[in-house]
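Worked problem 6 (solution included).
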Amino acid sequence: MENDCIFCNIASGKTGADLLFEDETLVVFKDIKPHAPTHLLIVPKKHIRSVNDLTAEDQGIIGHMIMVAKEAAKRESVNESGYKLLFNVERGGGQVIFHLHLHLLGGWER
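Solution. The predicted structure is:
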């Protein structure tokens, strides 16, 4: 855990957030600056700076993040209408908080 990392602090309970899901590996909560009607963040509790910092031992975390995102989309009722899953990687790729996280975006009217 990084002391100055907001996502580490949310995952450890030091900073409050309305968690929609939590297990031993991940937390899920709403983005405070949403870019879609449904905008959730799927965040590992382990501090991993970005996709570029993943190691072979982190493969299970990535798979789990995607499966949890799938279930979150169903709970948010965007699974049938459609949604996006997005990793921003490094500043040039749009990453603002340097703790690995997966965006789930959906809920647009079509």
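Discussion: The longest helix spans residues 59-75.
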